[in-house]
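Researcher: Sequence of Bifunctional diguanylate cyclase/phosphodiesterase follows. Predict its structure.
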Amino acid sequence: KVKESGKNNCLLYSEEWDNSSLERLKLQHDLKQAVQKGEFILHYQPQYDLSSGSIVGVEALVRWQHPVRGLVPPSHFIPLAEESGMIVQIGDWVLEEACRQNKAWQDEELPFIPVSVNLSIRQFLQQNLTEKVAHILARTGLEARYLDLEITESMTMDVNHASICLLELTKLGLNISIDDFGTGYSSFHYLKKLPIGRLKIDRSFVRDIEQDPGDAAIVAAIISMAHNLNLQVIAEGVENEAQMHFLQKHQCDEMQGFIWSAPVEGSRIAEMLKSVAAVEYKKQELS
Ligand code: C2E
Ligand code: MG
Ligand code: MG
Ligand code: MG
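Model: Prediction complete. Tokens:
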């Protein structure tokens, strides 16, 4: 089924992978091995302040370096990892690696920025999540305020659980963002109840912002609602200038998207941060 392979090719699992249980078992087996063999890597996508243009954070995004299939995107293995429960081990690794990498950038005296990590529902339902996160922060030496956890609206449906869990987590000093905001089947009830710091506007609303008055209205409304609730707001999937100008005009705080950078390796982020540091240094010298 693998037609072609190559180190940097993003090979897709074929359609059949999704349907045949044998193939699914194989993928599951491969995934289990991948955890043991350490075949996952993280890429990072910069997040920019919309008024200054500087990098204010990065999102960690997992990829699977499959020995035969090449670089496999998360959409091809996260769903199965979630179903099988393997996401917990993968997620533990992602969390620790993202914290380790962020601390390593700080140790290189690069500008300090938070790293965002995506949490899956299984991870969120773990009894010992806060303990785990606290241990990882202690082990890596990263201060909690440089960690941001992205959860989705679906995880807030059980408001009582979410409220206990998020209060514990935020007591550590980290930030919580709501990913893919606007796409979940949830009420706004949780927005005022839970200790959330930031909304991430789903890229499906950003995509047609210029052509679709409905999308434009929704994005403008999310930004203003976020600000009225004292939340930060970031737009995902910004690909062109028109979208960026719309967001600037409506005072969106931050953005993330291919217009500035796709997710890249950690070493590229270090280079980007280095040039940020150089600019900051020049500014200081001039003032
Ligand atoms: P997400 O958390 O919403 O991440 C943003 C996704 O949008 C990333 O896809 C990113 O590459 C893509 N993206 C960024 N800018 C643009 C843009 O301008 N245009 C378009 N079309 N796309 C853009 P990626 O890396 O393939 O990740 C897909 C999803 O997989 C993530 O969506 C997240 O839900 C999940 N995921 C990734 N890493 C992890 C992880 O470590 N743990 C868990 N539980 N889920 C993860
Ligand atoms: Mg995310
Ligand atoms: Mg998202
Ligand atoms: Mg998503």
